[in-house]
Write a structure and sequence with these properties.
The protein is mostly helical. It has helices at 3-15, 20-34, 40-50, 54-61, 71-78, 80-90, 94-112, 123-136. Helix content is 72%, strand content 0%. The longest helix has 19 residues, at 94-112. The chain is globular.
C-alpha cells in the first residue's frame, strides 16, 4: 500500500460521516496544512510553539496519545480571522467552529503524520490535496 493510499484511508476513516459543517472544517484544516504562504503543517507547528502549545501539537504528530486542546486555545493559535473564515465556509458560528476544530485537529494531524513525523518531499501536501478533492466531490 502506498503512502497516499494509507493516508487517504486513515483520514477518511477519521472523518467518515462528516457532513455539512464538519466537512467544511475538514477542508479548511487540510487547506491550512498545505498553505505554502503560512508554511503548512510546519508553520502551524511554529504557531503552536509561539503560543506555548508546542507540546500539544507535538503529541498529535508523535505516535503517543493526543493531548486535548480547548476551543479558546484553537482560536489563540489560529487567530480570529482564520476561525471566522472557517466558520463562514462551514456555515456555523465562531464558537461552534472553535469547538469542532478542538475535536478535529488532533485526529487529523495525527492521521496525516502516520509515522510520528512530518512527511518529507511534498508528500504531505500531495496527500492532503488528494483528500481535499475527495471531500469536495461529496
Amino acid at each position: 500500500m502506498s503512502f497516499f493510499d494509507d493516508l487517504v484511508g486513515k483520514v477518511s476513516d477519521a472523518v467518515k460521516g462528516s457532513q455539512g459543517e464538519q466537512g467544511g472544517l475538514v477542508e479548511g484544516v487540510m487547506s491550512l496544512l498545505t498553505n505554502k504562504e503560512t508554511g503548512g503543517l510546519g508553520g502551524l507547528m511554529q504557531a503552536f510553539n509561539q503560543k506555548g502549545l508546542g507540546d500539544v501539537i507535538s503529541s498529535w504528530v508523535g505516535t503517543g496519545n493526543n493531548t486535548a486542546i480547548t476551543p479558546d486555545q484553537v482560536q489563540e493559535v489560529l487567530g480570529s480571522d482564520v476561525i471566522q473564515q472557517l466558520a463562514e465556509k462551514s456555515g456555523v458560528s465562531v464558537d461552534a467552529a472553535k469547538a469542532q476544530l478542538s475535536e478535529l485537529l488532533p485526529g487529523l494531524i495525527d492521521k496525516v503524520t502516520p509515522e510520528g513525523k512530518i512527511p518529507e518531499g511534498g508528500l504531505l501536501g500531495k496527500g492532503v490535496e488528494l483528500l481535499g478533492s475527495l471531500f469536495s466531490q461529496k
